[in-house]
Design goal:
The complex is a heterodimer of chains A (284) and B (331). With 284 residues, chain A is an alpha+beta fold. Chain A has four helices and nine strands; from the N terminus they run αβααββββββββα. Chain A has one domain. In chain A, strands 1-2-3-4-5-6-7-8-9 form a nine-stranded mixed beta barrel. The chains are: A alpha+beta (284), B alpha+beta (331). At the A-B interface, strand 2, strand 3, strand 4 and helix 4 of A face strand 3, strand 4 and helix 6 of B.
């Protein structure tokens, strides 16, 4: 009797564990309060706390580029990846290109117009980060959800902004750094379709990249008054073998009177980009 | 100080009423400002502030023009804005044509009320005289003027010889908002407790909190300052403080310690916002001054579009490489 009884207890325990993990994996049961227009209000200051801006995939902590100058200041945190399945499905040529990007990530070479964007992480040069990178940079962003058909997303990093146009049919008139965002509601989820992104933006400091054919579908789902689940599917037939997905929670910043504090980084990059063109002998 | 500020506003209001047309009282009564679902006046939408009316009234011009005078005045301003000029030789003409290509066509019209200056106070439409500047500020202005002169000669020493707009640090996104050659669009977003104003040039969003929170501590400074708003009837009144002290940040080189700016946004009809600003700085101008600029709602199909300035700022490299080449060739 005894062994059998133990077996029963064990299997009950397994069932309980199974049901807990199922509940976590299922769509959240939280129901966000609705505004007069019948939709949740996503307005507020939000931030991701993943380390995906260093690398979307699993990564160990690394010294920075100049440990001899900056010691631990410049070092990069380790972290678990946010890519579903663990690995970005690159085409073979693109995987090689990613590695090359990484090798040359800290170069800011702008003396030739035609090669202006050829090397270097756009973040290094303080360029607008594009989508989805803007969402997981180590800076907050703010949503201002109005009562008309537009939603503002304003990012602390380089004061980048984008306008989400709701139920909009017009296609992007031209490519831009933050792309062309068209939104719709699916229940309590804000779904944003992003096209028209400049091919030069990167996805992280590890050199992950895309082409001008990138198509991103983002999903913002409230999971508590203080959290949203962020999901993004990236499709780019020129670079990846299939669409792939990232997801992580966004946290509402709760500090009293918190606001975005400018991170206008252009002045931080001018010496890197333009210092070499100074008149010989002129003082900075 | 308070009395002065009040009288400025009173004069400005009286003047606006006088300028607004024949039946200001009737117009005001007819228009009920729309409200957001949470009860604030609704300023949402895309607006454009282009006009050829100059900030300051040209000397010898009267303050408000008749229709015929307005047409002549517009024609003379268009000439100043280099439209259809052929004088000065081909090189000069091509340079003008380049700028002309970018120019907002709305810029060819003066304000509908036929004013000859955006400044409404003082009544002469001119920026008040300067007070004597401290030796430090005189030296700073002289250094800036020298840098501008190097730049204008095509011989900048360094990127710091260029202005903040050329360096793509701030452009028309810093208050007060003045019309410029192109990209005169602003989009206003609102949700409870906040009004966000996003100028097309450069892509920043100014968050105007209307929830009663205090300004940032005095130790925190920003390129666009720190804005707080309140509703005065149907008018959004915005006070902006905490500006950085870098050269070129504070409007017209006023002093960061004593500069004050108040902006007022009022919807006056279904397609117009009256944008009014008053600036004062007793260490710069002998008295406060006020300008009124009409904002016109633009066709929803004509969208705000991203102005990526720094990302492709080839100009800055061309200016610097050109200067180095000129100096090399001159040796």
């Amino acid at each position: 009797m005894r062994p059998r009884r133990q077996l029963v207890v064990f299997s009950l325990g397994a069932a309980a564990t199974l049901s807990v993990s199922l509940a976590l994996a299922q769509a959240p049961t939280y129901r966000a309060p609705h505004r007069a227009d019948g939709h949740p209000d996503l307005s507020g200051v939000w931030q991701a706390f993943v380390t995906a801006n260093w690398d979307l995939q699993d990564h160990e902590a690394q010294p920075g580029l100049h440990p001899e100058l900056e010691g631990a200041y410049d070092a990069e945190p380790g972290g678990q990846g946010i890519v579903e399945g663990g690995v970005i499905p690159y085409q073979p040529w693109a995987l090689a290109k990613k590695k090359e990007n990484f090798e040359k990530r800290a170069k800011g070479e702008v003396s030739d117009d035609k090669k202006w964007h050829a090397v270097g992480d756009p973040e290094l040069k303080c360029y607008m980060p594009g989508v989805p990178r803007a969402t997981y940079m180590p800076h907050p962003f703010q949503i201002v959800q109005g009562s008309n058909n537009t939603i503002l997303m304003a990012y602390e990093f380089t004061s980048a902004t984008r306008i989400v146009r709701m139920n909009w049919t017009q296609e992007s008139p031209a490519d831009s750094w933050m792309g062309w965002s068209r939104g719709r509601w699916e229940g309590d989820t804000l779904v944003v379709d992003v096209t028209g992104q400049r091919e030069e933006t990167w996805l992280d400091r590890a050199g992950d990249f895309h082409s001008d054919k990138l198509h991103v579908v983002e999903r913002y789902t409230p999971t508590s008054p203080y959290h949203m689940l962020y999901e993004a599917t990236l499709e780019d037939p020129k670079v990846y073998t299939r669409p792939w997905k990232i997801s992580f929670p966004l946290y509402r910043r709760m500090e009293k009177n918190l606001q975005l504090i400018e991170f206008k980084c252009v002045p931080f990059t001018e010496e890197l980009l333009y210092g070499r063109f100074r008149k010989p002998g002129a003082t900075r | 100080m308070k009395t002065v500020a009040c009288s400025v506003v009173a004069v400005a209001i009286a003047l606006t009423a006088a300028l607004a047309g024949q039946t200001p009282a009737k117009q005001a009564k007819a228009y009920a400002v729309p409200r957001t679902p949470w009860g604030d006046p609704d300023l949402q939408g895309v607006w454009n502030d282009a006009t050829s009316t100059p900030l300051q009234r040209p000397n010898g011009t009267k303050d408000v023009l008749t229709d015929e005078e307005a047409a002549d005045f517009q024609a003379s301003l268009a000439h100043e804005l280099t439209r259809d000029r052929r004088d000065g030789g081909p090189e000069v003409d091509v340079n003008r044509a380049y700028n002309d290509h970018w120019m907002d066509a709305r810029r060819l019209k003066i304000t509908a009320d036929h004013r000859t200056s955006l400044i409404v106070e003082p009544r002469d439409g001119r920026i008040p005289p300067l007070v004597p500047l401290s030796p430090e500020r005189q030296a700073a202005r002289a250094a800036r003027a020298a840098a501008n002169a190097r730049f204008n000669q095509g011989l900048p020493d360094d990127y710091t010889d260029m202005s903040l707009p050329v360096r793509c640090i701030i452009r028309t996104d810093s208050p007060p908002y003045l019309p410029t050659i192109y990209n005169n669009d602003f989009q206003i977003f609102q949700s409870p407790g906040i009004v966000a104003i996003s100028p097309e040039m450069i892509h920043s969003a100014r968050m105007v909190y209307t929830d009663g929170r205090p300004h940032l501590n005095g130790s925190l400074h920003q390129w666009l300052g720190d804005s707080r708003g309140r509703w005065d009837g149907t008018t959004l009144v915005v006070e902006t403080t905490n500006f950085r002290s870098d050269d070129g940040v504070i409007f017209q080189g006023a002093s960061p310690e004593s500069f004050r700016i108040t902006e007022r946004f009022t919807r006056v009809d279904p397609t117009s916002i009256n944008y009014e600003f008053t600036v004062e700085d007793p260490t710069t101008w002998t008295k406060p001054w006020t300008a009124i600029i009409p904002w016109t709602k633009i066709d929803p199909a004509e969208q705000m579009y991203e102005y990526g300035c720094h990302e492709d700022n080839f100009d800055i490299v061309h200016f610097l490489k050109g200067a180095r080449n000129r100096q090399k060739n001159a040796r």
